[in-house]
Amino acid sequence: MNTTKYPERFTRADIRKDPPEIRDRKIEALIEAMTMEEKFSLLGGSVEPEDKGKIGNAGYQWGVPRLGIPEAVMYDGPAGITGVVETTGLPQPALLGCTWDDEMAYEFGAVAASEAAACSGNYLLAPQVDVIRSPHFGRNKDMKAEDSYLAGRLGVAETKGCQDQGVVATIKHFAAANTFGKSFFHFSDEMIDEQTLHEQYLRSFEMSIREGHAGSVMNAYNKSSGEMSRPE
Question: Within 36-139, where are the H helices?
Answer without folding.
Answer: 36-41, 93-97, 102-118
